[in-house]
Each structure stands twice: as C-alpha cells, then as structure tokens.
Design a protein that fits this description.
This protein is an alpha/beta fold. It has two domains: 235 residues, Rossmann fold (3-Layer(aba) Sandwich), CATH 3.40.50; 233 residues, Glycoside hydrolase/deacetylase (TIM Barrel, Alpha-Beta Barrel), CATH 3.20.20. 26% of the residues lie in helices and 23% in strands. The protein contains 13 helices and 28 strands. Strands 2-1-3-4-13-12-11-7-8 form a nine-stranded mixed beta sheet, with helices on both faces. Strands 15, 16, 17, 21, 22 and 23 form a six-stranded parallel beta sheet that branches. Helix 7 packs parallel to helix 12 and helix 9 crosses helix 10. The radius of gyration is 23 Å and the shape is globular. The model has no long low-confidence stretch (mean pLDDT 94).
Amino acid sequence: MIHVICPGSRSEAGNIVEAAMRRSCGKRLVCRSSISIMMGKPSPLTAVCWVLIDPLEAWSLTIIEAIQGRDCKILLLGAIPPTLASHLNMTVFPVGQTLKDAAACVPAPSHQFTESEAVVTYIKGLASFLSPILNRPFLRYDFTDEWNNLGYGAIKVDDSIWAIATQALIAAENCIAEVSTGEHALSAYCGLWDAKANSLLWFNRSVGPVDSQEWRLIEYFLANYRNANLPCWPVIHEIPYSYEGAVTMRLDCDEDVESARALWKTYQTLDIPFSLALHAAVLPDERQHLLPQQVLEKGGAILSHTATHASNWGGSYDVAYHEAISSAQEIHRATGYQVRYAVSPFHQTPDYARAALADADYKGCIGGIIRNDPDFLMARAGLAPGSADGFIGHSQQCMLHGDCVLDGADPLAVFKQAFDIAKAGGAFFGYLDHPFSPRYQYGWVSELQRITIHREFISYFKQSDNILFCNQTDALDFLRDKAAIEVTMQPDCFWVIPSAVSISKWQVSVEYKDIITAIPASGIVL
C-alpha cells in the first residue's frame, strides 16, 4: 500500500497529495494513515511506500528506523524535523528575505513572458530518468498576472502548503534539484537517499510537485526506480496506450460563436478535431446555432462555458448550480446536444463549483490556472481534492492568443515548449483560443495571422511520432475511464481492474517495473 501520513495541522496538504496519488495509482492502492500505522511494523510480505508530509519531530525516530531497516520507499514532502535532518546530513534554516524577494514576478506585457529570479533547477535525475521540466521559476506569467502557458503553478514563500518549506543544504551526492538565483544556489529542492533496503525521495514543499509535470519523477520513483531490489507500484498512464503524446484543443466562445467558422474550416482541412465551449448567453441569437451543430456532425465536441460567464461561478454553490443547469438546458435547446463537460470561466474552479457541477450531472470540468485555485492545477487529470467519484478535473493552462505570441524569431517558442513538457510528462496536452467578436480579438492582428499560427502549431505537433489528436469530449471520456481504474494489492501481485462500463474508444495502460501494458476489459495481474 501507499500510506499518506501528515499532522492534523497539514490535513489540506494530505488531501491534495492523497488525491494526486490516487490519480496516478488508482483508487484503492492509496490510503490515508497515521504515524501509529508506521510504528506498527507492517508484515514483511507487504510492500509499503510511506508518504510523509511535514513530519513532526516526534516522528523522527520512527522514520529513521524505516530508513535503516525495511524494504520500502519513502516520499518526504515539506519541512524536515531536526533529528531526521541530522540523520540525512541536512542543514535546514528558515526561508530568508533574499529568496522571498527573488520569488516575485511582474505581470507579463503583451508578446512577452516574465519569470521570477528564483528558479528550481534539476541537476540530475533518478538514475537516468530526468524531470520533464529542468528549470521551473517559482512564478511565471505569459498573460498579465493570470496565465502560465507552460502549465505549472506557483511555488510560494508564504508558509502555505504551496510554499517552499525551508532553505536546506544537503550533500551533493543526494541533490537532485536546487533553488538558485542566477549562479547562486540558495537551497536544495529535491533530494534522494539510497540505502541497501530502501530509497527516500524528498521535495522541499508540503504538496510536492502536484501542480507540475515534475510529478512524473514521483511516478517513476513508485513504478520503476530500483525495481530489481525494492518494491514498486503500478502507475496508470494519462494518455491512451501506444501513443507518444495526446493533444486536444478548444475555443471558448465568450461572445461570438459564428466568428470561429474560418478557423474551424482550417482544422477541417487539416483533419484535426475541433471543440467549442459555448457560453449560453450568446445562444438566444439563432445565428450562433449552426456552427455548433456542424462541429458535432463533423466529429467535434461541444462543452458548456456557463450561462453568464460569472467570476468564480457566481461566488456560491447555489449560483454555480444554476449556472451549470441553465447553461446545459440552453445548449440543448440550441443544438439538441446534452453536454457532459464544462469549462470554467476565467479557469476559476473553486470547490463549491465542482460540487455544483457534479450535482447538475456534469461528468467533469476543465480549469487550472496559476492565479487561483491551486488545488485544481493538477499534473494528472482525474479526481480533484474534495470531488466525488465520477466527476473529474483536467488542467489546461495553455492559451494560444495573439497577446501571448512572442516577439522575435520564434513566435511559438513558449507553446512548443508547453507541448514538449506535456509529452515528456506523459500528460494530455490541451490548449485554447477564443473566437473573435466586434469588441475584442484577443491580441490577434487578423484572422489570417491567427490561422497561420494555428497551422504552424499543428505542424509542430506532427513532427513528433504517433501523436493522438482528439476532440475535448473524447479526451475527457478517456480520462474518466482512467480515473475509474482500481488497483488492488495482493501478497505477491497487483490486480488492475478497469470500470465495468468503458466509455472511451482507447485503451488505458499501466506502467510497472519499466514495462507498459494495455489494460484489457477483464483486467490484468502484475
């Protein structure tokens, strides 16, 4: 089993990390535990991974005993208590003002990006496995102070669960990643300690890298690292079996649906699936009905983009529920289609909105943005913290707007990097644009410029081998199938069991001890 343990004062971090572990390893392989379970010395026949979040000083001797004597893997997240720090030959001290100042970032001007001076830099991998992101600024913007098109969240310096926990010095042989400003290293960020009977991986943040494709390091640690002599656990892949990458796009139709026609025709020519998220307030105009119907007829997707595009879904569960219900009804009236998925306005996805959407019979939601709701900015799609089974979340923070196209030799440099990171992390890559309106063109000079950039981006995808292009609904249907997988642990094997009702056309796969296997409808034993 994978046991997630944290002090009561860190229960929010525990909820977030537990949900992230379940998104990677299935619903039944991860459990919330207490330090008494760790003290209880599980059966030697049972493989154990201990995930410890901000462990207390009183727990140090128990953790050291695990390090010294058991076949296990240990994932440490956040602050390290003094006795344990001494055992790991680690020196820890409070986050200083120099690092706090370096963590700030100004808003991005149009056609540029901004980054904090403080950066996490990976200097080596786990064995030969490298992080999909080698350099991660604490804070980064591609559009004002809202979007980070590379997809990850903010590392804060405010003592929250999203902050760097401490400044720390560790031996060079143990250091996987460090925090630096320019050429000056200020702290360790990720460390690895190997012993004969176990391995310990540490991230200097209470929630670890849950909001970044760095999460792939944890998946590798669980599924593959030292698999010849240490226990491993299956990890469920986010993209369909046999593909090297997966891409989905959409337009968020805030004002004028019909103005998307030229871009839709381009995607039709390129044989790339097209998706529209409909803002129901524009649908009383019957001129906006034809294109959504044609998109559906040609294999595209329709999603809800709420009824009124209210900030934070209107500010309460009751308003969010009304937004969800009335939007679905209006879209059905206009198109004859019953939407199953929603796109959050402004990508704001508070927990009450997730609950309201699930109660309104939506199956999932797209959100995720560096500015707000950090628990919904997830490296892996699936059950968000606090969400009920059957309702999934998917983070898609890449906004292909004219405002974000760079000045310089390669206008698409950031977008290409975003796709490369997602591909290296084994993540579904989603990007968005908006149709034009008489009021606003989202930084595009003309429709011709916009179409040219979209064509170039698609051409870049196609330079990679074996990339799946799918519409947004098909992508989310697959991710719902993935979220329904159950993994159970037996004394000498794992059972990987898919949902009895599969809704996707693609197979989910599982990774275990360096082997990737498709999961048949009957399940598989590893």
